[in-house]
Amino acid sequence: MTGPGVPTVPPATHNYAQSWTYSNLEDTVGMVRAEYDFLPAWTAYVSGGAHHSNEHGDYSSPNYNADMGTTAYRLGVPRKSDALAAEAGVRGHFATGPVTHQIAAGAAYTHIEDRSAYDFSGTYPTSLYDTAQVPRPAAVITAGDFADPPVTARTMMKSVAVSDTLGFLNDRVLFTIGARHQQIHQNGYSSATSALTDSYDDSVTTPIFGLVVKPWQNVAFYANRSEALAKGETAPADAVNVGQTLAPYRTKQVEFGVKYDTTRMGASFAAYQIEKPTAYTDADTRIFSTNGNQRHRGLEASVYGEPYRGVRLIAGASLIKAEQLDTNNGGATDGNRPVGVPAFLFNLGAEYDVPMLTGLTLTARYVHTGKQYLDAANTLSISSWNRFDLGARYATSVAGHDTTLRASVLNVTNKAYWASTMGGYLAQGTPRTLLLSVTSDF
After folding, report:
1. Is 0.70 surpassed by the pTM of this model?
2. Residue 402 sits in which domain range?
């Protein structure tokens, strides 16, 4: 989306997609894990896995401009991704006098290779509300071999961590101390020429701290601090540097709270702070890049329980104070809210076991999300929204196997709303949708 103003939400019953758009996604995952108890209180473990993803699609997202109308273009994408991961470690416990120790040490390795090609068509006029179908437009820009997409990114992530959780006063006070070393090496390549376009190699050693205090049997106070190194984000299709991978970035998180838990009910309350870089597509230059940092300070509360036999409730709320820091042009957007971060979230869920039919449970859920800004300057925003879902599940036995049948309806009122925004994109909320599933234990 570009230009001033936010478009009115199309009716939930209207589909503004072109008939030739499609997306085929295929994922294949394999995992294996082994554990060996080599001493009464010590266990060694090793695990590994592989993930192959294959995507083919023709996409066309409308681009709204209040001054120039709505246009769109076709984007064709074949994309393949292969990931290999391995992990090994040891854990155990022992005591030194009145102090207990829970030791954990491990190492992890992940390698990801992404392959993709793409083609773009020219733009064509369209509408969010009275969409005319157009023939599939031909490509004007092509990069890469669609039959054998070239490598566009390789990422290697390694980490080693060790920690000790010390227990005092019969484990009513638990203090965790540890350290983690992470390394990320990532290369980006051009889809058109396969030339190396960017390369990053970063590593960091960070401390791990945690404290849990249990003054009473059902109450626990906790606090923790952690840091992490994360893979850099990739420029989206609407950016002029599409496909470019940004440098790895560091995050910091501090959290403290309290939990109360019994067999019939529980509650929790927490306060936290998260710091991380901000990345988005600039509205003027259309370059996707990092611009300063963002800090999230929030309060979270939840309560759950069974006030009456067969009736279960769960509710949660979050207050988020998020702001941009150290932004470009002398802090031009310092103090503004980051893109796509609401100030308030609330969820309420309920379940009812129907007494007349054993195994049948009715479910309901209410979701509320607060206003979100579309741009770093906070001049454009989407309204808060509410959604109601209903469902049912039936647990029974089929041929001696425990089987559960589920049915749910999302957005029962078929309300039209903008659900979220990120990087200049608007995502429309799911229209009234029926979901059916069957699970069985063998």
Report:
1. yes
2. 22-440
